[in-house]
Amino acid sequence: MLSDEPVVLDGGLATQLEARGHDLSDALWSARLLADAPEEIVAAHLAFFRAGAQVATTASYQASFPGFAACGVGRAEAAQLLRRSVELARRARDLLAADGGRRWVAASAGPYGAYLADGSEYRGRYGLTARELVAFHRPRLEVLAEAGPDLIALETVPDVDEAVAELAALDAVDVPAWLSYTVENGRTRAGQSLEEAFAVAAEDDRVVAVGVNCCAPDEVPGAVGVAREVTGKPVIAYPNSGEGWDAAAKAWTGPARFSPEQVTGWIAAGARFVGGCCRVGPPDIARVADVVRNPRGIA
Asked: Closest by alpha carbon to 107, among 3, 29, 8, 177?
């Protein structure tokens, strides 16, 4: 997977599921469909693959044992649903195997704030100890790893403390990971410097890429440059549309600023993995893929 050529990531899985008519306003978000409509998740993965994505990120971002328990789902069933998230992405990949394209599955592990479902992933600083954060992340990382993804996506991390806890939780698994922060104004959402944020993964061989996601597109070039300079690792960039999330209203606000043509600048800054996050759909990823394949021929 770590070639010199850029790799195209998918976009917002929940965005595509909502476009297919699903209401994802409850606390489990897209993870609810792991039980209610698994074939819809396969269809969403297929839409991104067919648009040119080479990586499917699983529907487990907001899935956790405490989150499932709060919705009345027991531990055994929760583990089954976590494994299913990986299996569904693999199924979508296998359906396209005949075309000979290389594709990968990244098991999504969102931050603790995603479980809270109150916008905390855009703030961090939950008031938990490092031990408590490790205890939250480790069990689901173990289950996701058992399902056989190609790597684990530690994504939308809002602060350094949680990143350190997630890396500690990786001790329990044997799957490579990427570490991706959500950032604002050139710092983590909790306000730490990006130099400090990326430094925690610089010497960790389990982390095969570092970068940013679910941030405004104009945050990407600067963050990519810092990530590359601090770690020397391949850099990943998949911002959202540029709209803001109103946690109280559970709605996106403001104008979209995501433009696939920006990808050339991200790659020039050092990004190796490029795609989109929330509010970025298959048509956007198709244009990203076109830019990656033909960077000088942007229409």
From this structure: 177
Listed residue (297, 282, 294, 291) closest to 10, CA to CA: 282
Beta pairing partners, 177: 152, 207
CA distance 206 to 174: 8
277 is in an annotated binding site: yes
Q: pLDDT for 73-132, tens place per residue? A: 999 999 999 999 999 999 999 999 999 999 999 999 999 999 998 889 999 999 999 999
In angstroms, the Cα distances linking 70 to 63, 65, 67 are: 11, 9, 5
Contact (Cβ atoms closer than 8 angstroms) between residue 130 and residue 69: no
Closest by CA position to 109, among listed 54, 67, 70: 67
Separation CA 89–CA 63 (nearest Å): 15
Please give the Cα distance from 107 to 154 (Å, whole number): 9
Both structure tokens of 190 = 């909790």
Best CA proximity match to 11, nearest among 166, 245, 239:
239
Q: Give 267's contacts (C-beta < 8 A, 6+ positions apart).
A: 6, 274, 292, 295
pLDDT value at 274 more than 80 = yes
- 278 known member of a binding site: yes
Give the CA dihedral 214, 50, 283, 240, nearest 10 degrees.
Answer: 0
What is the chain's mean pLDDT, rounded? Answer: 93
8 Å CB contact between 89 and 56: yes
Q: Name the β-bridge partners of 153.
A: 108, 178
Which CA distances in Å does 85 have to 175, 224, 290? 16, 29, 28
Instruction: Give 159-204 pLDDT, tens digit per residue.
Output: 999 999 999 999 999 999 999 999 999 999 999 999 999 999 999 9
SS3 at position 55: strand
Rounded Cα–Cα distance for residues 124 and 27 (Å): 18
